[in-house]
Amino acid sequence: MPAERRIAFVINSIGYGGAERALANVITAGAGRDPAYDMHLIMLDDDPPRRTMPAQAQHHVLDSRGSLWRSVAQLRRCLSALKPDLVVSFLVRANVASALAGRSLNIPVVACERMHASSHFRLKHRGLKRLGAQLAPRLAYRFAEIVLGVSTGVSDDLVRNFAVSPAKSRTINNPYDLAHIREQASLPAPFALPERFIAAVGRLERAKDFGSLIRAYAAASPEPKLVILGEGALRAELEALIAELGLTGRVLLPGYASNPFAVVGRAEFYVSASLNEGFPNAMVEAMALGKPVVATDCYSGPAEILGGAADGAAGDVVHGEFGLLVRTRDERALAAAMNEMERPESLAHYAAKSLERAEQFNLGEIGDQYWSLFDEIYLAVRSRTAG
What we know:
Layout: E1 5-11, H1 18-30, E2 37-43, E3 58-61, H2 68-82, E4 86-90, H3 92-105, E5 109-113, H4 117-124, H5 127-140, E6 146-149, H6 152-161, E7 169-171, H7 178-185, E8 197-201, H8 210-220, E9 225-229, H9 235-244, E10 251-255, H10 261-264, E11 270-272, H11 281-288, E12 293-296, H12 302-306, E13 318-319, E14 324-326, H13 331-341, H14 344-358, H15 363-386
Parallel strand pairs: 1-2, 1-4, 2-3, 4-5, 5-6, 6-7, 8-9, 9-10, 11-12, 12-14
Antiparallel strand pairs: 13-14
């Protein structure tokens, strides 16, 4: 029997990022639900997919080539043909395109914002380019039925700085398939690993601040090596810094790992020096594997996850309920936190707390929150239309 409800998910393309993984989990969580939805996945760009997406959704690939206006025009044609009851979009360009196309077709849109937008745009753009990048979501998000932040910090930023009405703002965290993460972690590592190491994961770009992490590691001089998984434009710069600090062979940049869990699962603990996040996937995935966490209290997500706030003096290490927090760009504090996490009692304590916290983001519970929201919007719009 065909599903009476149709939903279209929209994203720029299927890359390596956390948004793609979160979207895959949301689609998976929708399979077998009652009432059933006819699910469609629309990619705005015809880029090679970097991960396999769930087969429960029929795939549609557009060819906007990164252009916002081509995205709006092509998405509008696609939605006009599909006639979904609801559109759910992930990432800024997909959100803006969906809000505009949905408005023109009178289709309700849930725009899912994955990043703390203000700090993201500050780090990525300057001058007029930054103003233009901020203006598009500020204008378009008002047309969405709901603007869904992945953390409280993300949602608060959207209300304060992007003209999102509090009545349209909701927050739901990312869902995680904990069993799958742990199953993947049990597989052989994709490359040779040091006997003892600390893990970090992320794109090699400014927002992850791996330069500060490497300098803090040099100051801490812990016994385990440091393995940073990821690729990006700053590889050459980071390699030069590693050589300059005499850390060649101690700090390793093995690149992107198709199965990062098999690497992180063998680490002693996980460290993040990010300047900007939304809801850091790699951190929660490390916690799902029982890895203690050291993190900077950046915008936004780490403090919410770890249960604390690094609002003290420079050099302070904050003992959150679920991990250690330090201020961003505070290399002295980050070094001290890494040294503290080497202590067996700290490792054991925060390993247990990581497992406890990760359970609160399990796919079943968080996935149900997403689909309950979709049901709520479908029924509200249907009632409004009938009225």
